[in-house]
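Researcher: Here's my situation. A collaborator sent me these components and asked whether they could plausibly form a single complex. I don't have experimental data yet, so a predicted model of the whole assembly would be a useful starting point for our discussion.
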Amino acid sequence: MFKELDPILHSQLRLAVISLLISVKEAEFNYLKEKTKASSGNLSVQLQKLKEAGYIEIEKSFKDNFPLTTCKISNAGIEAFENYVKNLKQYIQVKK
Amino acid sequence: MFKELDPILHSQLRLAVISLLISVKEAEFNYLKEKTKASSGNLSVQLQKLKEAGYIEIEKSFKDNFPLTTCKISNAGIEAFENYVKNLKQYIQVKK
DNA sequence: ATTATTTAGTTTATAATATAAACTACTTTA
DNA sequence: TAAAGTAGTTTATATTATAAACTAAATAAT
C-alpha cells in the first residue's frame, strides 16, 4: 500500500535543495542558503548527507579568493527524486 | 519560496494515517496498523500526536469484550492535510 | 482452576535526525 | 594590526521516530 519514503529525501531542507538543483542544474552554497533560508551549519550537514547518498556532487574551488562550494545533482539524485515523488503521491492524493 | 511543511504531517506514518482517515472517515486501530505496517507502539504514539494536534479524534470503546480504538479525522485535520499537500507541491513539481 | 496464550493497546528507552551554536580558516577593510 | 566579514565545518543539543518492554484484560489449554 504505502511505499517507503526515502528518508534522505523526506527532509524539508534536503528536499528543497534537491528541488532547486533539479531546476538549476548547478548552484552555489549561498544560493541554496538564500533560497532555502537555512543556516549555514544545517545546510552544510545536509549537503554532506546528499553527497554521501550519491544524490549530489560537491565541487570546491575559490572565487575572488574566497572558498566556493558548488553543487549539482547526479543521475542517482534525479532518479531518487522521481521515485520519491512517485511514492509520495500515494500518500497525498485522496482516493475516493 | 519554500513554505514550511507542517512537522506533524511530515512524518511517514502520521501522513499515511491521515491519508487513510481522509478516505475512510473512520478506522479502527488494527485497520490502521495493517494498512500502514506499523508496530502497535509506534502507531499508538503517532495517533496521540495527531490527537494532540487536533487533527484526529480518538474514541475508545469495547468490541467483543476487547478494547477498541476508533479514529476519525477532524476538520482541522482535513485543513492541515490540504495545506500540507499544497505546500509540498512547491517542493515536488519541477519548475522549468 | 490456574497456567499459557492472545488481543489490544500504552509507556518508556533508545536510536536516528534536524538544527543551531560554536568554531576554523582565511580575506578585506579601518 | 586589529576588527569585521566571508564561507563554510564541526559539534553539541533538542526533537523525532521507532521498537522493546510492559499493562490489563480475555480466551484457550492442561
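Model: Some features of this prediction you could bring to your collaborator: The mean pLDDT of chain B is 94. Chain B touches chain A through 23 residues (CB under 8 Å).
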